[in-house]
Amino acid sequence: MSEIASRNIHQHLINLLEQHDARFRVVEHEAVGKCEAVSEIRGTALGQGAKALLCKIKGNGVKKHVLAILAADLQADLSRLAQHFGSSKASLASPAEVDELTACVFGAIPPFSFHPDLHLVADPVLFQRFDDIAFNAGLLEKSVIMNTGDYLRIARPELVDFRRE
């Protein structure tokens, strides 16, 4: 079992946010799979949702995993993401890779990288429209709504335009 798999990602995330004096709140809710449904339960706009996509980038001598964060009302352009890294191909990672690199199931991945081999990028539109972002916090039935500026300060993602135009 990898070091990350032995962690309680939800508690690790909450501890991190508290240590950095983040402005956030936890919302407990039913485990629902669709971004639209969970944003309604949270009482947030769909565009406030931070969708986390675990991507595999390969080609042109590049081979890496990227946790790509995108506003839930937008779609990813994986070819733009691959191009950013000088690669020719990007695809979504397998469930086994998601488990290994995030210790979460699809849909529960928070927009933070807790694995040294997982590069964190975020599309800047997510931070331009709302003062708070919302995301599943390591568990399908727990979300965090947090201040956008605090997220950027703590997570420090590389900002990359990779949304579909």
Summarize the structure.
This is YbaK/prolyl-tRNA synthetase associated domain-containing protein. This protein has 165 residues and is an alpha/beta fold. It is built from five helices and eight strands.
Please specify the SSE layout and strand pairing.
Blueprint: H1 9-19, E1 24-28, H2 35-42, E2 50-59, E3 62-71, H3 78-84, E4 89-92, H4 95-102, E5 118-122, E6 132-139, E7 142-147, H5 148-155, E8 158-159
Parallel strand pairs: 3-5, 5-8
Antiparallel strand pairs: 1-7, 2-3, 2-4, 6-7
Organism: Kosakonia sacchari
InterPro entries: PROXY, YbaK/aa-tRNA-synt-asso_dom_sf, YbaK/aa-tRNA-synth-assoc-dom
Pfam families: tRNA_edit
What does this entry look like structurally?
Pfam families: tRNA_edit. This is YbaK/prolyl-tRNA synthetase associated domain-containing protein. Residues 29-153 form the YbaK/aminoacyl-tRNA synthetase-associated domain. This protein has 165 residues and is of the alpha/beta class. Helix content is 25%, strand content 30%. The protein contains five helices and eight strands, in the order αβαββαβαβββαβ. The protein has helices spanning 9-19, 35-42, 78-84, 95-102, 148-155; strands at residues 24-28, 50-59, 62-71, 89-92, 118-122, 132-139, 142-147, 158-159. The strands form two sheets. Strands 4-2-3-5-8 form a five-stranded mixed beta sheet. β2 (50-59) and β3 form a beta hairpin. The chain starts with 8 loop residues before the first helix and ends in a 6-residue tail after the last strand. 37% of the residues are buried. The mean pLDDT is 93.
